[in-house]
Write a structure and sequence with these properties.
- It contains 18 helices and 18 strands.
- The protein is α/β, with parallel strands linked by helices.
- Helix 8 crosses helix 9, helix 8 packs across helix 10 and helix 14 runs antiparallel to helix 16.
- The chain is elongated, with a radius of gyration of 39 Å.
């Protein structure tokens, strides 16, 4: 049986070969396809596939080499230096050569990569993966398995350079020897003629950042001095325009230094938490940009406060009247801080302390001002309570008698203690509402309007229009909104007249003007003596805090 099966199989194979003989003969007469006849795109795909195959083979060889070294008990060798150069001599092997704040060079064989941060990277021996330099130049004169990258630096390829991946230069230039080979792409990313090749940024990195200071006495970072001078001029301008607010903050820092430091620590720690909580809520997320802008303005103003406080330590001993102005103190304090900025390590420490302390002092001063306004409003509340309690001074028997019998013999109830509505003149004399209480009322109103608009228009495109219309309607009819009722706020005209439709509509439209420049019109109330926003000034209105027993509905 076995012999019969073998014979049958042999006959079938011979029959198949005979049947395909004409096909073989016909195939031999077909001319071969030349590579030049293929489309260029197909050629590129073939070349790319060949490079990928070669890269995979080299990766497999490196993996096998590492496995062999591991089997032999040899550990991986990685050359790493911080603040110094890293180099690999010729004839030696390392898995990686890394230098932080220094240059990395390799003349031997590197299994993975050559990396330099804050220095130059050079490879004249084979590199398995890539050569990378951050804030430095790259020189390659050997075979590199993958990419060659220079960020804020130049790339130079020697005659023996073979780059199997891409060659990239960000903010620099790529120069190649005609004999060099780049199998991957070549990308040179520039930042426009106004930024050049970012040499100015690289110089600041080398002269300032590596030494832990914002400024340095070097011509290459002159732009940083001009920038610092511009900010100093801004601080002096703030001292001229808002001398009253600046004086209150300086007084807080001078008289309450311990509490100011505690307020700084709490402000720095709680600010990120507040932003995260607001981001979680839908309506609160819309207010995060305004909060961030407010914090930025507070930090900017706070730096002027710290500079003025430091400058007053010197100007107070001069005895010159002109030096007593806070603007002069801010200028002198700023010059002192600029000199401290040039000291290594201490420069960044001073910069962070000045920014954080200024932010905390401004927040603490706002809290103290709010507390003072609440204390000032207490006597007004007591006066209203005393006037409402005045009928109780009548003798009990007279009260009972008057309650029992009237002129016509009917029973009359005792007089009511309910408070009366305050007139516009009386409302105008009430304490002005601060920033945070008004933002809280606005957030509540936005929540209510947002829910209603969501039912009508899911796209929320009408939200701002609906919020403005809601405000104008409530200001005209009630002089406040639902959020204002909860927070005991009232919108009144500065001339003591009732709010008319024209005033309400102009105030609502003015809110858009306050919102356009990143909410600056709303933040303006923090620095205004009358706590008026831009739309308050346009409409001639103020927002006051009324006693809790005053009816608002």
């Amino acid at each position: 049986m076995r012999r019969s099966f073998v014979c049958f199989f042999a006959i079938a194979v011979l029959a198949g070969l005979g049947g395909t003989q004409p096909a073989f003969a016909q195939e031999e007469t077909t001319p071969p396809v030349e590579l030049d006849d293929l489309p260029r795109s197909v050629e590129r795909e073939i070349e790319q596939a060949e490079r990928e195959i070669e890269r995979a083979q080299r990766a497999a060889e490196r993996a096998a080499d590492r496995a062999e070294r591991h089997m032999d008990g040899r550990n991986e060798r990685v050359i790493v230096n911080i603040g110094d150069n890293s180099s690999l001599p010729a004839g030696e092997y390392a898995d990686a050569v890394i230098a932080v704040l220094g240059s990395a060079s390799s003349a031997g064989e590197v299994g993975e990569a050559v990396v330099a941060i804050g220095g130059n990277a050079s490879a004249t021996g084979p590199v398995g993966e890539g050569v990378v330099a951050l804030f430095g130049n790259v020189y390659v004169d050997s075979e590199v398995g993958e990419d060659v990258v220079a960020v804020f630096g130049n790339v130079q390829l020697g005659p023996n350079a073979v780059v199997n991946g891409e060659t990239v230069s960000v903010g620099g230039a790529i120069t190649r020897d005609p004999a060099s080979k780049v199998h991957g792409g070549q990308q040179q990313i520039a930042f426009g003629k106004h930024f050049g090749d970012l040499k100015w940024l690289k110089a600041w990195f080398e002269q300032c950042l590596l030494y832990g200071r914002p400024l340095a006495f070097d011509q290459s970072v002159a732009w940083a001095w001009w920038l610092a001078a511009g900010f100093l001029g801004l601080y002096v301008l703030l001292a001229v325009m808002f001398d009253g607010a600046l004086q209150r903050c300086v007084t807080t820092l001078e008289e309450r230094p311990g509490e100011s430091v505690i307020a700084t620590i709490l402000s720095v720690l709680l600010s990120p938490i507040l932003i995260i909580v607001m981001l979680i809520t839908i309506i609160g997320a819309a207010l995060v940009p305004f909060l961030a802008l407010g914090m930025f303005c507070a930090a900017l103003f706070g730096k002027a406060v710290v500079l003025a406080t430091l400058g007053r330590r010197i100007t107070r001993f001069t005895g010159i009247g002109a030096f007593g102005h806070l603007a002069v103190a801010t200028l002198i304090g700023g010059l002192i801080v600029l000199l401290l900025y040039t000291v290594p390590v201490l420069g960044f420490i001073v910069s962070n302390i000045v920014g954080a302390l200024g932010f905390g002092v401004v927040i603490y001063t706002l809290l103290l001002a709010q507390r003072a306004r609440s204390a000032a409003a207490a006597p007004a509340v007591q006066t209203v309570a005393a006037s409402s309690a005045a009928p109780s001074a009548i003798p009990p028997d007279a009260t009972v008698a008057s309650a029992a019998v009237a002129g016509d013999g009917s029973t009359v109830p005792p007089p009511s203690a309910a408070p009366e509505n305050l007139s516009n003149i009386e409302l105008n004399s009430q304490p002005r509402a601060g920033f945070w209480i008004r933002m809280g009322a606005l957030a509540l109103d936005a929540l209510i309007v947002g829910i209603l608009v969501k039912w009508v228009d899911p796209s929320d495109e009408l939200f701002l229009v609906a919020l403005a219309g809601y405000g104008a309607l409530m200001w005209k009819l009630k002089g406040t909104t639902v959020g204002g009722i909860v927070c005991n706020l009232r919108v009144v005209r500065t001339d003591g007249r009732d709010i008319e439709w024209e005033t309400a509509i102009v105030r609502a439209l003015g809110c858009f003007l306050s919102l356009i420049p990143a909410g600056l019109g709303f933040i303006w109330m923090v620095f205004d003596n009358n706590r008026q926003t831009w739309h308050d000034k346009i409409a001639g209105t103020v927002v006051v805090r009324v006693p809790r027993n005053t009816p608002l509905v």
